[in-house]
Specification:
Blueprint (H helix, E strand, L loop, with lengths): L1 H9 L2 H30 L8 E5 L7 E14 H6 L10 E8 L3 H4 L3 E5 L3 E5 L5 E5 L4 E11 L2 E2 L8 H49 L5 H32 L2 E6 L5 E5 L3 E5 L6 H17 L2 E2 L4 E2 L2 H32 L4 H13 L4 H24 L14 H25 L3 H9 L4 H30 L4 H4 L26 H10 L4 H38 L2
């Protein structure tokens, strides 16, 4: 038996089982992490039931509660007594519920802990609605009346909640259409006209600095400025007309504790009655809220709305980083392996490259801020954008410098992976190509690099995985809390590499650690983290597919 075990051990079978177990545990841990993110993030968009009750805790005046029950926990009686609550010490534990009350206009808080033993008359009225607003957070309540312009609805209509709700939804759809027109004019036409006016001002100042501003050129600039100003005046007139239509309608909502809030319809993003929804209706609201999260801009201090600018900024930054890091990493690896004389110097260089991969990322951020932003960016402004000074153009953190900083951060990974791929190519391949009359450059370009392309893509995959999740260096070289204007849009020059941008990783940090409304931010942190993992997985899968195709092509050579 002992000999069999010794033979089994020498064959390496235990190590196979240990490795297999480690891989299985890793997979389970990853799936568990994704499950936690999915459950805590995606359930946030589901329209939960809204409850109504009265809170009669000792020492507090009776309070009406209207909101969603979000979390429950058990608290020892000693803890409650120590906090000043008058509860029966004979009861060891009390259930404490976290209610999302919303109604920030009336309550001043969005969430409150209440003891379940002192909540009475709990019900779920069908007339209670959820009003998601652009400002002020969520409001819970029932519609009292509609104000359409200067005319109120007939008194008999106020007694019919369903009629009033249908009329409100109909008018809300009209207001949304008007709001889309306003957003289109502001984000496209008005932004383009203002950009044209600013570029005209810079052209005129550049001509003045160069001494080329003649009277005829001044007259030409004035005519162009007048034309743009006329366009701006027409656009502003259109906006004023749309604002006049959109701001005249409002709804009076009866909230908790007999409070009433008048909400302009233009401020309402979405309204629904969760207690009156069928399963199909809940799925519809869920899909709308999830779609808004993926395609809309953030609002309310990034604790509501969507994260589309952060998604777009993350993807564009990673793509630009890939364009920068791939050629530099491949060229460095080819030089070290194919051209450099192998000796002490190249060994020192390889050790230095490996050590660079372990440098803290924030150090790269400080280096990028000093080199790219202040030095190179400042010189670019002096040479090409002198008319805009002292306002910086490239001498400030932006998308270009963030991409270059991350390229510098990940270039050691690409160098090491590419050089390992070059090492695995047999020497006979090189000698055969040279024997057939090819030059060394032609051998590397047409034979060696195609065969090493899978290793290059492996390095790129590792670079993308690291760069997409980095936050610390980006805080110094371009990422900001809120930048709803995308770095790629329809305004000349269409790709704004000097513009600051949003990033999913920084968005998670900001919402999770800088938000004053922790409970409202908690589910968005999970949802954004799940989205960031998904974006990284999609980018890596795309690169892996390209790597597999390149490997198949290299085998056919």
């Amino acid at each position: 038996m002992r000999q069999k075990l010794r033979k089994w051990s020498r064959a390496g079978t235990p190590w196979i089982w240990i490795n297999a177990g480690a891989v299985a545990i890793s997979i389970v841990m990853v799936l568990g992490l994704l499950g936690v993110l999915a459950v805590n993030g995606l359930r946030h968009f589901w329209p939960n039931e809204v409850s109504q009750g009265r809170y009669l805790a000792p020492g507090f005046k009776p309070t009406e509660l209207i909101g969603e029950l979000t979390r429950t926990e058990w608290v020892a009686a000693e803890v409650l007594i120590a906090s000043g609550l008058r509860v029966d010490p004979a009861q060891e534990r009390y259930r404490r519920d976290l209610w999302k009350l919303g109604n920030r206009d009336l309550n001043g808080i969005d969430f409150a802990w209440v003891l379940a033993d002192f909540v009475e008359e709990v019900s779920a009225p069908e007339s209670i609605a959820v009003f998601e607003r652009k400002q002020g957070g969520v409001l819970y309540g029932a519609i009292s009346s509609l104000e359409l312009g200067e005319e109120l609805d007939p008194a008999d209509a106020l007694t019919d909640d369903q009629f009033l709700w249908a009329q409100f939804q109909s008018r809300l759809e009209e207001v949304r259409e008007l709001d889309k027109q306003i957003q289109s004019i502001q984000s496209e036409q008005l932004a383009r006209a203002n950009s044209d006016l600013e570029r005209l001002r810079l052209r005129e100042r550049a001509a003045m600095l160069e001494g080329e501003l003649s009277p005829s050129l001044t007259q030409q600039f004035s005519a162009q400025r007048l034309e743009i100003q006329v366009e701006l005046a027409n656009l502003q007139h259109q906006l004023n007309q749309l604002y006049a239509q959109i701001e005249r309608d409002s709804v009076l909502v009866r909230a908790s504790n007999a409070g009433e809030v008048l909400i302009p319809l233009a401020e309402i993003v979405r309204a629904y009655q969760p207690n009156n929804l069928t399963l199909a209706g809940k799925l519809s609201v869920y899909s709308q809220r999830l779609w808004e999260f993926l395609t809309a801009e953030p609002r309310a201090g990034n604790t509501e709305g969507g994260v589309y600018p952060a998604i777009f900024g993350t993807v564009v930054m990673v793509l630009l980083m890939s364009l920068f890091v791939t050629p530099f990493g491949v060229i460095a690896a080819v030089y070290l392996r194919e051209y450099a004389k192998q000796g002490m110097t190249t060994r020192i260089i390889r050790v230095a490259v490996n050590n660079l991969a372990g440098v803290p990322s924030v150090v790269y951020g400080v280096f990028g801020l000093g080199l790219f932003v202040y030095l190179i960016g400042g010189e670019i402004d002096q040479l090409f954008y002198a008319e805009a000074l002292p306002a910086p153009t490239f001498g400030t953190p932006g998308l270009l410098w963030a991409s270059l900083t991350l390229a510098l951060l990940t270039v050691p990974v690409v160098i090491v992976a590419t050089e390992e791929g070059l090492t695995r190519i047999p020497r006979s391949v090189r000698e055969g190509s040279l024997a057939l009359g090819a030059t060394k450059f032609e051998t590397i370009w047409r034979v060696i690099l195609p065969m090493a392309s899978p290793a290059m893509m492996t390095g790129l995959i590792l670079a993308i995985a690291r760069a997409a999740g980095e936050v610390a260096p980006l805080m110094l070289v371009g990422v900001v809390k809120l930048a709803p204007s995308l770095p790629v849009n329809g305004i000349y020059p269409y790709v704004h590499l000097d513009q600051q941008f949003m990033h999913l990783g920084f968005h998670i940090y900001d919402v999770g650690f800088q938000s004053s409304n922790v409970e409202a931010a908690r589910p968005l942190v999970f949802a954004t983290a799940l989205l960031l993992v998904s974006v990284i997985a999609i980018l890596n899968l795309t690169a892996a597919v390209l790597r597999n195709r390149l490997r198949e092509n290299s085998r056919s050579l």
